[in-house]
Amino acid sequence: MSQEVLRTENVSKSFGRVTALRDASIRLMKGEVLGLLGDNGAGKSTLMKILTGFHKPTTGKIYFEGQEVELKSVSHARSLGIEPVYQDLALINEINVYRNMFLQKELMRGGFLQILDDRTMRERAKEQLKEMGVNIPSVDVEISKLSGGQRQAIAVARSVYANAKVLLLDEPTAAMGVRESAMILDVIKRLKEKAEVSVIIVAHNYAHVFDVCDRLNLLQNGRITFDKATKETSIEELLNLVLHEMREAREQIRR
Amino acid sequence: MSTEQTNSVPASKSEPERTQRPGILRRIGRSLLHSREASIAIAGILLVIYFQSTAPVFLSPSNISNLAVFAATTAIIAAGEVMVIIAGEIDLSVGQVYALAPFVMFYSHQAGVPYLLAIALGLGVGIVVGLINGMITVLLRIPSFITTLGTFFFINGFTLSISGGFPVQPEADPVIVTLFGGNALSQFLWAVGVTVLLQFVLVKTRWGLHTIATGGNPIGAAEVGIKTTRIKIGNFVLCSMLGGLAGILDCFRISSADPLAGGADIMFMAIASSVIGGTLLTGGSGTIVGAFLGAVVLGILKDGFTLSGVSAFTFDMILGAAILLTMLINVHLSRLRAAGRSV
Fold first, then answer.
1. What pLDDT is stored for residue A2 in this prediction?
2. Chain A contact probe: residue of B18, B196, B197, B206 with most A CBs at under 10 A
3. What DSSP state is assigned to residue B23?
4. Do B226 and A104 make contact, defined as CB atoms within 8 angstroms?
5. How far is CA A104 from CA A90, A107, A128, B211, in A?
6. Closest-CA residue to B200 (of A115, A160, A233, A214)
7. A92 to B213: CB separation less than 8 angstroms, yes or no
8. Running DSSP on this structure, what letter comes out for residue B205?
9. Closest residue in B to A159 (Cα–Cα)
10. Binary contact (A116, B213; C-beta < 8 A)
11. Which among A76, A96, A103, A117 is the top mutation candidate for probing chain B, defined by the most B β-carbons within 10 Å of its own β-carbon?
């Protein structure tokens, strides 16, 4: 785990007069799972959108695999191997699992009509899901028949299959029950064991993701205020930081 | 049917081993529930039995050809309409392309273009209309209901203008006439061909998959990189072109093109066939075979009532009730299906 995959250096982003992100420097190693924590409006989404190529930073630099890069667009970031998994997951309810996994990267038997090679897609989807420990009744069921956790897992599997080097997970456990969350966290743990894909998890409920992350960064008011390996910290320490922030905010309102 | 399904739900829930062979009745019940096409086909068969028992001429050759012609025209248009609806849009103007295309063909031939090319030009005007419908809807972000409502009136006016409001009688080579819908059989084969081809495109090809994705989750489809604008425009083009084809086939069969033919009437019949056949107006889900069967059932109803002496007014009432009823059944069945699968 020595190779650096993604790094930002003093990245800031302003929208008009509002500065959403100030001098954020993060570093992601190969095979590492980084938790990007923070309250609503702390700047997590902004940093995420900069990494996906959706926003351009106002100032600061981004390095990918040691090279400075300018992420021109979402598809450019993707072509490098930075794969976002959006909250809406970009899955199609009316289509079955394996076709969803190959959506826009379909295998075809060629010809003018672009006939789909269902058999191969089916087999490969099955293999990929099995390898990642994703449990679903069958790859033939429509996405609409699956639970939130299963959908999330399929979206992750799809990105991994697309040769993702960096996986950006936006609130993967939002609006999910404990069992569902456990399933998706399990999938991430398996990824970690293989140490081929690096993951950034954005979450505001850090208790959910605490266990699965190697390192945690806390964003407060657009700044990264905390950067520690999970082993060296505790939920209590994070909680105290956030409580402290809350107290200060309350003081300011009183004044 | 419904009792079959409710029985099977707890059964499949209790044991995971699926190898156990379900009873033949249960299997039939399940496949009926799982296939919208099967239920509409059964409705059609029941209607045929009923009408044959009340009016024995129902299954006479001449009546069957009547029926085939109505169903064929409607089915061809419905096939295109289903693709547009699955992509999350609607095309109200297709019935006017049906009227316009034969005139374009007729006037091109009068200007010296051979018939085969004139037919292509007739279809070409469908392509142009589809492009206009699609581009206005997608690029200018106007709901397709409004876009095609506009082109509906525009094309109608255009057809009336170029024809002066009078019908024309094209006289083509008998071979061409026969090939292009000159008789009921030829027309019906066209409908079957279009249905089979488009159903294949819908369920087995990339275009069909992307059409479903575009209508099912437009944002998600765009996020994975599907060019949803191209999919939508393409299906508008397909729909208008099939509207033109249906118009040309009908024109050869009755050897006359009427500027007032088609219009809202045939468009609504096509949409009704689609809906009865199981296509959801919300997008993302539909079947071409279902729309074909829907058109056949509508044809049977219309023809059967005429033979039994029921007036056209009553027919419309029954058609309206039939649409509402099928929608109710569809909604109800989907719920049962969902219950059956969430094991």
1. 63
2. B206
3. P
4. yes
5. 11, 9, 17, 12
6. A115
7. yes
8. B
9. B224
10. no
11. A103
Mutation site for B-interface testing, chosen from A94, A158, A161, A170 by largest number of B Cβ within 10 Å: A94
Partners of residue A8 on adjacent β-strands: A62
A81 C-beta neighbours (distance < 10 Å), count: 19
Under an 8 A CB cutoff, do A92 and B212 touch? yes
Q: Phi, psi at residue B143, to the nearest 5°?
A: -55, 135
Q: pLDDT tens across A66-75, in order?
A: 999 999 888 8
A4-254: what fold? Answer: Rossmann fold (3.40.50)
Q: Taking a C-beta distance cutoff of 8 angstroms, is the pair B198, B79 a contact?
A: yes
Buried b or exposed e, range A129-139, using 16+ CB within 10 angstroms: beebebebeeb
Task: Provide the β-strand partners of residue A227.
Answer: A217
CA of A1: how far to CAs of A32, A187, A191, B90, in Å? 7, 19, 14, 54
What's the average model confidence in pLDDT over A222-226? 86
Residue of A nearest to B227 (CA): A104
Q: Which two tokens stand for residue B334?
A: 């989907």
| Predicted TM-score (pTM) of this structure | 0.83
Per domain, the residue ranges of chain A are 4-254
Please compute the mean of the pLDDT values over residues B100-107 and round it to a whole number.
96
pLDDT, mean over chain B: 87
* Range scoring the smallest mean pLDDT among A181-190, B15-24, B107-116, B126-135: B15-24
DSSP state, residue B260: T
Chain centre to alpha carbon of residue A28:
12
Report how far apart the first and last C-alpha atoms of chain A are (Å, whole number).
48
Lowest average pLDDT, out of A110-119, A171-180, B168-177, goes to A171-180
- Per DSSP, the three-state class of A217 is strand
Distance from CA of A175 to the nearest CA of B (A): 19
Domain residue ranges in chain B = 37-327
CB-CB under 8 Å, A99 with B223: no
Class of domain B37-327: mainly alpha
Give the DSSP H/E element, type plus range, for residue A45: helix A44-51
A10: left (phi over 0), alpha (psi -120 to 50) or beta: left
CB-CB under 8 Å, A88 with B212: no
The residue of chain B with its CA nearest to that of A90 is B220
Indicate whether A91 pLDDT > 70: yes
Is the ipTM reported for this complex over the cut 0.90? no
Per-residue DSSP letters for B279-299? Answer: --TTSS---HHHHHHHHHHHH
Minimal CA–CA distance to B293: which of B29, B78, B24?
B78
**Does the distance separating the beta carbons of A92 and B216 come in below 8 Å?**
yes
